[in-house]
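so i finally got all the pieces together for this one. its two components total, 792 residues if u count the protein bits. some of the lines might not be protein, just check the labels. i wanna see the whole assembly predicted at once instead of chain by chain like last time, that was a mess tbh
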Amino acid sequence: MRQYANVITAYAIMIGLIILVGIFQSWSIALSILNFCLISAVMTMGANIQWGYAGLINFGIMGYTALGGLAAVLVSVPPVREAWQVGGLNIILCVGIIALIAFGVRYVLKNFIKSNKRTIGVGLIIVFGLIILRLVSETAIESIEAVNPAKTGFLGGLGLPIIFSWIVGAFFAGALAYIIGKVALGLRADYLAIATLLISEIVIAVIKHEDWLTRGVKNVIGLNRPVPYEIDLQSAEWFIILVAKWNSGTLNLISDITEKKVLLSQLVIDASSVYVKLCYTGLFTIVVISLLIITQKALYSPWGRMMRAIRDNEEAANAMGKNVIKQHLLIFILGSAIVGIAGAMMVTHDGLFTPGSYRPMRYTFLIWVMVIVGGSGNNFGAILGGFAVWFLWIEAAPIALFFINLFTSGLPETHSLKLHLLNSVPYFRYLMMGLGLLLIMRYRPKGIIPEKIKHI
Amino acid sequence: MDFLNALILLLNYIFVPALAYGSQLALGAIFVTLIYGILRFANFATGDMMSFGTMVAILFTWYFQSLGISLGVLPTALLAIPLAIVFMIIYMLTIDKFVFSYYRVKKSPPVQLAMVSIGVMFITQAIVRIIIGPFDRRFFDGEKFIMKANQFKEITGLNEGLAIKSTQVLTIIITMIAVSILFWFLNKTKTGKSMRAYSDNEDLALLSGIDPKRVVMITWIIAGILATIGGVLYGLDKSFKPFTYFNNMLPIFAAAIVGGIGNPFGAFLGGYVIAFSEILITYAYKKFFMYILPESMEPNTLIQLLSTDYKFAVSFTILVIVLLFRPSGIFKGKVL
C-alpha cells in the first residue's frame, strides 16, 4: 500500500480541487471540468501508450481526435436521402476507384522488381486514377452540396445512436494510424514528430474542405445524445420530485407557496444541467476505468515487457527475435485508436462537430504537456497529467486575474498597463503551460508520478 | 501577343508571389536548419520566435511613426529591424542560458530538447499575445507598388497587367543579401568554418580547440538575425498575426527537410521548392489556357489541380514524399 501513497495523495488533491471549484464557482462548471479531464485522460492514455510504452513520438493527435469526431457525425446524423439520390452512386464509384488505385499500386509494387520503370508506372497509375476520380466526383460533389445547403449539403450519416461512434472512431483513427505508420514509422524520432504533425494538418484540411462528407466549416450541430435532454428532465415528474426531496431542507424554510414554486423551478433547471453532466461523467468514467484496466494489464504482461525492452534497446530486442517494426506499428495503431475514442467522446459531449476548432496547440501540444507532466510510461501518471493540466488550462484565467490584481493593486483602476494586462488574461494560460512543462522537465523529468517497473 | 499575355499572367500570379513567399520561407528554413545542425534538435518554437522578433519590430515602428521618423518611400519597419534583432538575440540567448544549455551539457537525446522547445513555444506565444494581442496587425507604410497593373498595361499595351509590390522586391533583395552574407560567413571566415566543423563532428571540433560556447552563441545570433528579418518581411508582405506565424512553422519545417535538414543551401532552395509547388498546384490555369490555346479548345472548367484550401496540404505532401524516397532531403543534409 505504501508504494501507492503518492498516487493516492495526488489524486485526492486533484479531486479536492475540483470539489473546491464546485463549492466556490458552481457544480455545473466543476462537472464540465471533470468531464473534459476524463476526455483528456483518455487522450493522454493513447499518447502514453505510444510514447511511454514504446518511445514513439506522435504529434498527430489532433488528426486522430478529429477523425473520432467525424465518426460521431457519420454514425449519428440521419442520412440525407436526397443527397444520396443525386450523388450517392458516384461517391460509391469513387470509393471503388480509390480502392482500385490502391490495389493497382500494390500489385505493381509487389510483382515487379525495383526500377525506374516501376516508379513511373506507379506514378502514372496514381495520376490517371486521380484524374478519373476528379471527373467522376466533381458533379456528384456539386449536386450533393447543393441539396439544402443551409441545413444539410452533405451525405449525412447512418442515424444510429451516437455511442456506437466511440468504437467506430477508434477504428477510423486506427486505420489512419495504419497508413501513417506504414509510411512514417521508419523515420528517426524528430522526423517522425514533424511528419505526424504535418500529416495531421492534412487530415484537418481534408475534413475542413470536403463539405460533402463533413459539412466542413459550416459545422454539424445538434447531434443526438446518449443521455437525456435538460428540457425533458425539467418536465419529468420523477425528476422534480427527486429535486424537491434533495432540497427539502431549503424548501421547507419557505412558507409562501408561490415563492416555493419559483425556487423549486429554479432548482430543477440547475439540477437538470448537473444531472446531464453527471450522466456524461458516468459514461466517461466507465471508459477511462476499463481502458485503465486493459492498459495496466497490458503493461505488466509479457507483451508489455517486450515493448519496454524494444523501447529501451531496440537492437537488443531485435537480436532476441522480436519484430520491432511490427510491434511499433501495432502500438502506433492501438494508441491512435484510443485517441480516436476520445475524439468521438468529445464531440458526443459537445453535441456539435466544428472542424475549424481543431488546432495543434490545443489538441496536440497540450496533450503532450499532459503526458510529460503526468509521467510517461505510467498510466496513473498519464491520467493525472490529463486532469491536472486540463484543470490548470481552464482555471488559468481566474488565477491570472488574481495575480494581476495583486501585483497592480497599487495602480489606479484606469492605468493603461493594468487594463492591458486585464485584457490579455486568456493568454496567461499559455505562459503557465510553458512554465509548467519546462519546470517539470528540468526538475522532475519523469513526471509527477514516475514510471515504476516491477522487477520479479 | 497572346503568348506574351499568357507569360505575363504566369509572372504576375505565380512567379513573383512565389519568389517573395519562397524567400520568406527560405530565411525561416535556414534558421531551423542552423539550429538543427549545430544544436541538434528540431526547434518547434521557430514560428513563435519569428513572431517575437516581428512584434518588437512593430513596436519600434509604431514608436518611430509617433516621432514622425520615416524612410519616405520605404517602410519604416526597415529602420526598426536592427533594433528588433538586438532584442531578439537577447531573448534567444536568455532562453538558451536558462533552458536549452542545461540539456545540452547533459547531452540529452534530441527528442527531449524538442519537447523543451515546445515549452519555449508556449511561453513565447504567451509573451507575444500578452504584449501585442492576438489580432491582425498591418504595419506597412511607404509606397505600396513599384509597378501597378494599369501602368504596366499602358506601357506595354498588353491585356494582362504585371503588378509588383515594393514589399516583394524588398523581400527578395534583402533575402539575397542576407543569404549571401551568411554563406560567405560560413564558408570563408574562421568562425564560420569552426561552426561547420562543430556541426560535422562535435568531438573532433572540441579536440581541435573550438570553443563550443562561442559556436552556440554565434549560432543563436545568426538565428536571431534570420528569424527577425524573415518574420518582418513576411509581416510587411502580408500581415502580422501570431497564429499565422505559428502555422508558418509547418511549411518552414517542410522546406528545411525537403532541402536536407542541416544544410543551409538546401534549406534556402527548399523554401522556393515549397513556395512554388504550393502556388503552382493551387493556381487556376483557365485564363492561361485561354490565351495559348485556339478558341475552339478553350477549357470550360477552372483547370485547377487542387483548390486553394489545400495550399498547406501540398507542401506537406511533398515533404512526406521526400521523407519516403529520400529521407536525407534533396541535398544531403546533416552537415552545414
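Strands of chain B lie at 145-147, 164-165.
The first strand of chain B starts at residue 145 and ends at 147.
anyway lmk what u think
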